[in-house]
Design brief:
The chain is about 15% helix and about 40% strand. By secondary structure, the protein is mainly beta. Strands 6-7-8-5-1-4-3-2-9 form a nine-stranded mixed β-sheet, covered by helices on one side.
Length: about 140
């Protein structure tokens, strides 16, 4: 799997959504002393916190085609894969509900999102470039 400086190396990464991600980051950094490894200066904003693993904090946003009450503040899962397009094709052929088709992102990842039987979002991400966080508006922790 290609290494990407804008993506943690672990394979499974929980994503937590907050109405106020800045307040959530402050709480986690000050109250439980998590380490901030990467921050985004661009909306909706995300921060990666990790040592051996990772968690991504994100602003709450409405998923396309759903109301805000159907997409509560909550969680999703990101799984790193070697071939996002092939993974997407197999998932679609097997009847998975695709929320977002594969797309390239400026932080060097190609991702798509599917919904599981309970309504949880699962994003599958392939590193397609090694991108320094500063190239897409991120800031690596010093």
């Amino acid at each position: 799997m290609l290494a990407n400086r804008s993506m943690p190396s672990c394979t499974v990464i929980p994503e937590l959504r907050y109405l106020d991600v800045v307040e959530a980051i402050d709480w986690l950094l000050r109250r439980v002393r998590l380490h901030r490894a990467l921050a985004s200066r661009k909306p909706p904003g995300s921060t990666r916190l990790w040592r051996d693993g990772a968690v991504v904090l994100m602003e709450h946003r409405v998923v396309e085609g759903r109301s805000s009450t159907e997409t509560p503040v909550g969680h999703a899962v990101l799984v790193r894969v070697e071939d996002a397009d092939g993974h997407h094709r197999r998932a679609r052929q097997r009847g998975a509900r695709i929320l977002r088709p594969p797309a390239d992102y400026p932080y060097g990842e190609r991702q798509y999102t599917a919904e599981d039987l309970a309504g949880h979002a699962w994003s599958f991400s392939q590193s397609i470039a090694d991108v320094a966080p500063e190239q897409w508006g991120g800031v690596a922790a010093r």
